[in-house]
Amino acid sequence: MATAGAGRSTVVDAEIRGVIDLADYAMYLSRFQRCGIVAGSEPATVSLAFPVERRWCYAGVLVRQRAPGVVRIEVDAPPESVETVVEQVCRALSLDVDGGGFAAVADGDPVLRHRLRANPGLRPVLFCSPYEAACWAVVCHRFRVAQADAVIRRIAMNRGRVFHVGGREIPSFPVPQELGVLDSSYGVSERKRRSLSAIADAALSGELDADRLRALPVFAAVEAVRRLPGLGPFSAELVVGRGAGHPDLFPASEAGLATTLRRCYGVDDVGVVTERWRPYRGWGAFFLRETVTDEQ
What we know:
This protein is of the alpha+beta class. The chain has helices at 22-31, 82-92, 99-107, 110-118, 130-140, 145-159, 176-179, 190-205, 210-215, 218-226, 233-243, 255-265, 270-274, 281-290, and strands spanning 2-4, 10-15, 37-39, 45-51, 58-67, 70-76, 161-165, 168-172. Helices cover 46% and strands 16% of the residues. A hairpin with a 2-residue loop joins strand 7 and strand 8 (168-172).
């Protein structure tokens, strides 16, 4: 395990369409921890560490609010990868989509409107890449979420790199060429270990490239991911929706989410509700699944 974070950062300011408040992100991340994305030690900051797509090096990033519609992204990564890192950060924090469109959709939906008002500056927080999402999905199969998170963190600590970002020590998940062949000490089955190795190869070959998956129709992207070993319908939807960041993918295979939707809206057919969310069905799923309001 190597450490990083002592080098000089490259600073990029990114203009964001729609309302954004990193204080809401920090509050969310204090409740829902995720390997590679945490609330920074300073108020209204987010710290990240992750493998950089296509270049497959490592990056440590601090995101802070510079103005109401501008975030400052401080990148610790090889100079030639900075542009890719910024794009990846914006996708992982859903800053690459016009949030004003979702606000308009939520305004006509009492349930979403209530949840968005409780977290007005928040957007979906995703995995840092489809590669990371696919690895998490494989590990999570038949595990509780907390158990899967612990395994992912163990892999990151032993095979990845630790960054010191924004006053936090953050382990990055390993780049695919360094994931290697895991042994039984990580607590995952031999079948899962083989699947993780295949996913690393797929990432290196470009099969899990986020831009490629986002450019495909949702159903085609999901079917492409399902061809990889260890990834069924639930996992493929997670990779495309919460890995590649497709804003309009509603995870139909997520039974618990469908139950929550039926309860909140008093309907049997979830499609009656989700059709009204187009083209932000993925965002609607996030706010229904992961935000906390006084109704809960």
